[in-house]
Amino acid sequence: MAGTKNHDYHILDPDIWPLIGSLSALTFTTGMVFMMHHVPATDGAPAQFGSWPIILGLGVMGLIATFFSWFGNVVREAERGDHTPVVQLHMRYGMILFIASEVMFFVGWFWAFFDFALFPDPIQMVEGSDNIWENLIGQEGAAALAQFPPKGVEVLNAFQLPLLNTLILLCSGTTVSWAHHALIHGDREGLKMGLWATVALGAVFTGIQTYEYAIAPFAFGGNTYSSAFYMATGFHGFHVLIGTIFLIVCLARTYKGHFTPRQHFGFEAAAWYWHFVDVVWLFLFIAVYIWGGWGAPVH
Questions:
Q1: How many CB atoms neighbour CB 267 within 10 A?
Q2: What is the model's pLDDT at position 224?
Q3: For position 175, what pLDDT does the model report?
Q4: Per-residue pLDDT, 5
Q5: Whole-number Å distance between alpha carbons of 245 and 58
Q6: Does 218 fall in a domain?
Q7: Potential cystine with 39: which of 34, 210, 258, 261 (Cβ 3.0-4.6 Å)?
Q8: 108 and 134 assigned to the same domain
Q9: In contact, 196 and 250? CB cutoff 8 Å
Q10: Is the same domain home to 172 and 287?
Q11: Do the domain assignments include residue 40?
Q12: 210 and 270: one domain?
């Protein structure tokens, strides 16, 4: 018959949410730029009363609405059987490529950190001119910046809170694997307990990192060490937060009876993402906390 589906692919229905999501992302980034550059609503208006709160708020609301609606459509497609084995395979390819792009994102921060650490010479002016740092802060100040971390900067003790967070993430990788194996073997209670444990460990990690930032002996900016430290560990903390939300959604879906041993890509994607976050943290712990602060005074 004409119109009868005779293939394993899922042909998507027309949807407005990709367009809304794109416009919301543009609005959000515009609001962020205005906020960072203190663009007021009108000439002479105080920066804090500028137009950026409205623009930023609209962008955030649009993105949240897109997440709920678009992802909700994907969940409904999965539950009504549209995600055939072929579709699931291609979704796995997409998740692998997404994680690969995230790997390269962190490669950039590791590259910057190692560049600062291995080549810590102060910034120079054009060839043949004087050192800009010596002109601004004197020879001793320039010499201090030529070290990594800069001379006199205290670093966090890698074997206190960072080590505790490392153990927490390693345990969370175990609990999410427990949940995955429970799902494969049809153990719904094991799936719930494993997810609850992983979400709790992720929340504890975030709380400890927030406290670590609050007591850190150095502020963001001011030198290359602190900038690289906060950008690398901060973006990782953001990924932990996103991964925790990802797992909370999976937990809610579990209580609704979603996921079967044969069809559970949503949970599988969350588990892959969580393991990626674990591995990145191990590199951060070794490179940034242990090696990066070696020989510097400990806070």
A1: 24
A2: 79
A3: 97
A4: 65
A5: 22
A6: yes
A7: 34
A8: no
A9: no
A10: yes
A11: yes
A12: yes
> What is the DSSP annotation of 51-103?
SHHHHHHHHHHHHHHHHHHHHHHHHHHHHTT---HHHHHHHHHHHHHHHHHHH
Ranges of the chain whose pLDDT falls below 70: 1-6, 40-50, 120-148, 150, 222, 295-297, 299
In a shared domain, residues 172 and 55: no
CATH of the domain at 254: 1.20.120.80
Whose tokens are 């137009």? That residue is 51
Instruction: Give a yes or no: residue 93 inside a domain.
Output: no
Task: Tell me, yes or no, whether 147 and 244 share the same domain.
Answer: no
* pLDDT score for 119: 77
Q: Could you tell me if 232 and 113 are in contact, meaning their C-beta atoms sit under 8 angstroms apart? A: yes
What global pTM score does this model have?
A: 0.83
pLDDT at 97: 96
pLDDT at position 128 is: 46
188 & 242 share domain: yes
Structural domain contains residue 8: no
Helix 52-79 × helix 17-36 angle, to 10°: 150
Domain count for the chain: 3
- Please give the residue range of the domain that contains residue 147: 123-151
Q: Are residues 274 and 166 in the same domain?
A: yes
